[in-house]
Write a structure and sequence with these properties.
Elements lengths: L1 H39 L3 E3 L6 H4 L10 E13 L2 E12 L6 E11 L7 E5 L8 H4 L3 E3 L2 E5 L1 H10 L9 E5 L2 E7 L5 H4 L3 H14 L1
Antiparallel strand pairs: 1-2, 2-3, 3-4, 4-9, 5-7, 5-8, 6-7, 8-9
C-alpha cells in the first residue's frame, strides 16, 4: 500500500514537472514571437508591464475580471496620434483546487474620438463571460452586448470583416479594447493584430 502511494506521488511529481517545462517553453516561444512582431512594427516591447495596466484599465470589464490580474509581453507605441498598447493579460478565478488561470491577447487604443460606451462579448467565449455581460441589452451577430444598441449594430457591420471572428470588444471613455482568449497555440494564431483595431477606429473616425 505504501509503495503504491509513493509511486502515485512520484508520477504526480513527474507530471507536474513536465507540465511546468512545457508551459515554460510555450511562454518563452510566445514572448519571442510577440517581441519579433513588435520589432517588425517598429514598436517598443517589454516582457513586463511598465504601465500598471490592471490599474490603468480597471474600468474595463475584462481587466476587472477575477483576481491576481497581470499584464506582460507588452507592445506599445503611437499611431494616428493615438496611444496603442497590446499585451498578454492573465487573471485567475476560483481558489484552491478550483483555481483556474485565463489568458487573453489584448489590444487597447486610447483615442481623442467621442464614442458611445458599449461592451460586446463574443459567443465563442461565452463560457468565460464576465458577470457584467450577463446583464445584456441584446444580442447582435456573434456578440452579446451592453450599451448603445445603434452603435453596437454599426460595430457589428464592420466586424463582419476578417479577423474579428473570435474577438470581444469594449469602448469606454473613448478608449477601445479588443480581446481574444489565448491558449497553447502559436502567437500568430491567438495574438491580435493591432492593425485590426486601428482600421476600426479609422472607420469610426470617418463615419461616425
Amino acid at each position: 500500500m505504501l509503495i503504491a502511494f509513493v509511486v502515485i506521488l512520484v508520477v504526480a511529481l513527474i507530471a507536474a514537472v513536465i507540465s511546468f517545462v512545457v508551459m515554460g517553453v510555450f511562454h518563452e516561444k510566445r514572448t519571442r514571437k510577440i517581441s519579433a512582431m513588435a520589432f517588425a512594427r517598429s514598436a517598443r516591447f517589454s516582457r513586463e508591464d511598465p504601465f500598471d495596466i490592471p490599474q490603468r484599465y480597471r474600468d474595463f470589464v475584462l481587466i476587472s475580471c477575477g483576481h491576481s490580474p497581470r499584464a506582460f509581453n507588452v507592445t506599445y507605441g503611437q499611431v494616428d496620434f493615438w496611444t496603442l498598447r497590446s499585451f498578454d493579460f492573465r487573471y485567475e478565478v476560483g481558489h484552491g483546487t478550483r483555481r483556474l488561470s485565463r489568458l487573453y491577447s489584448v489590444v487597447v487604443i486610447d483615442t481623442h474620438l467621442k464614442l458611445p460606451d458599449v461592451m460586446m462579448w463574443n459567443d465563442s467565449d461565452s463560457d468565460n463571460a464576465p458577470l457584467e455581460i450577463m446583464q445584456i441589452d441584446g444580442h447582435i451577430g456573434r456578440w452579446s452586448f451592453a450599451g448603445d444598441a445603434k452603435f453596437a449594430a454599426k460595430l457589428c457591420d464592420f466586424a463582419q470583416k476578417d479577423g474579428f471572428e473570435n474577438l470581444s470588444l469594449q469602448i469606454y471613455n473613448n478608449t477601445l479594447l479588443l480581446s481574444r482568449a489565448a491558449g497553447a497555440k502559436s502567437a500568430e494564431n491567438d495574438t491580435i493584430n493591432p492593425d485590426i483595431a486601428v482600421d476600426l477606429l479609422r472607420e469610426l473616425k470617418d463615419n461616425f
